[in-house]
Amino acid sequence: PEVLVSVHEARLHYQVGGAFAAMRGKSTVVKAVDGVTFDIRRGESVGLLGESGCGKTSMGRLLLKLEDTTGGSIHFDGEELGEVRRHRLKKFRSRAQLIFQNPFDAINPRFTIRATLSEPLENAGIPRSEREDRIVKALELVRLPEPEQFLDRYPHQLSGGQLQRVVMARALILQPEFVVADEPVSMLDVSVRAGVLNVFRDVRDRLGLTAIYISHDLALVRYVCERTIVMYLGRIMEDGSTEDIVREPLHPYTKALVAAVPVPNPDQSHDPLPIGRGAPDPRNPPSGCVFRDRCPSAHARCASEVPEPRPVGSRLVACHLF
Ligand code: SF4
Fold first, then answer.
1. Residue 200: which region, alpha, beta or left (left: phi > 0; alpha: psi -120 to 50)?
2. Closest Cα to residue 107, out of 154, 54, 173, 66?
3. Are the CB atoms for 229 and 46 separated by under 8 Å?
């Protein structure tokens, strides 16, 4: 089928405060993901955009079954992720991979590059005789020149950009169809970001990957993704083609994000948002529209009624103005 990933009313709610707080009536539920619905077509690249705490990383973890939903459903290639267990989970893990933000979340500093890249092959039961060849090919894929010279090196002997390519090679070595990249260049120097992003785009196109690119940075999402989903406090605010969103943002939150990015200069993408920094405490979101207390267009209805995403042209927008 055309759709690879189908998310329907997905929720990830969890208790904070523990048993003691619960006894005193103080525990609260954080709705990290709260009723999110979208489909991803095969070969599509979708950016998940929002400030920290908006639920984009939680959404990425749900998509890879690193966390289970507490409500709703996620289907991968027609199969409900909640039903995927044991041997089928192993198969799923080889088809869907995470590219980490921090290289040291993905690789052990005491392992050589060879050992780092052997591990997933070994876990997948690839015979030893084939591994070296696959490792060299994966390093070539991410454009590390003369891959053989890296095999016996340790992570600290590589530059940040080289290390992030190794992380990418590790995620790609089992030839997945679907990757979730979580802020993959945020730890890198601005000067090497473009190089790593170019490798990501190139590999994605060559392998025909379906990709989710998680970022707080609209300029980076624009560089990588044809479609963007804007999230805020666990909910989707706007979902549409990246060019439409950059050219004419509709949702007031998207407008603020776009206004903060003097596109196309990615170096200045950290200007303060015109609506002020920082989402409200996720344990205590506003009633009605979760964006209400920062929204310049908030009106009475926004306090009482949650806006559901509705089609506006070819986009979906969750706002009572539409
Ligand atoms: Fe602003 Fe109301 Fe739209 Fe929410 S629903 S974004 S508060 S106008």
1. alpha
2. 154
3. yes
Give CA–CA dist 295/305, Å, rounded: 15
319 CB within 6 A, ligand 1:
yes
pLDDT in tens, 43-82: 999 999 998 888 999 999 999 999 999 999 999 999 999 8
Is the C-beta atom of 249 inside 6 A of ligand 1?
no
Tokens of 221: 């999402």
Q: Which two tokens stand for residue 237?
A: 């605010």
- Phi, psi (degrees; rounded to nearest 5) at 167: -60, -40
> Counting atoms of ligand 1 from 1, which one is nearest the CA of 237?
6
Q: Going from the N-terminus, what domains does the chain have, and what CATH number goes with each?
A: 3-234 (3.40.50.300)
Q: Which two tokens stand for residue 91?
A: 């198969």
Is residue 295 within 6 Å of ligand 1 at its C-beta?
yes
176 lines ligand 1 (CB under 6 A): no
| Whether 176 contacts 169, CB under 8 Å | no
ipTM given for this complex:
0.99
84-137 pLDDT, tens digit each: 887 788 889 889 999 887 777 778 899 999 999 999 999 888 999 999 999 999
What pLDDT, on the 0 to 100 scale, is given for residue 269?
47
